[in-house]
Write a structure and sequence with these properties.
Elements lengths: L2 H107 L1 H12 L10
């Protein structure tokens, strides 16, 4: 054997096991990193799912509160309109009654006839004879 062959065999005997050990450690490290990334991805997906579920629940609760408020607003609006209509009708009845009372009072006082009577009493008497 030559020195080159001996060096090659020696190198293969020393370096090859180290290379195989390094390769296997690198494989284990890559596997560990891959598992860690997969674990992180799973945790991120679970958290995202949880957040989406929470957001959906909150949206549903907000929608329910919105519907409740809108229904209450519509009910109170209808109630206010009904009360307004009642007040308007009452006001119209009272205005009609006041007008009727006013007309009744004027008729009972017979103002026109009394004015004529007063005017006729306060008018100076007409002279029938001419003055000379």
């Amino acid at each position: 054997m030559s020195v080159i062959d001996d060096s090659r065999i020696l190198l293969q005997d020393i370096v090859t096991p180290d290379l195989k050990a390094i390769a296997s450690r690198l494989e284990a490290l890559e596997k560990s990193v891959k598992q860690g990334l997969e674990s992180v991805e799973k945790v991120a997906e679970l958290r995202q799912e949880l957040m989406l579920n929470r957001l959906e629940a909150e949206r549903a609760a907000n929608l329910a509160r919105h519907e409740l408020v809108m229904n209450k607003l519509e009910n109170e609006s209808a109630q206010v309109k009904a009360e307004f209509a009642l007040l308007r009708a009452q006001m119209e009845r009272e205005a009609t009654a006041a007008k009727e009372r006013h007309e009744t009072l004027l008729r009972s006082l017979d103002i026109d006839r009394r004015i004529e009577l007063l005017e006729s009493r306060s008018a100076p008497p007409e002279r029938t004879t001419p003055r000379a």
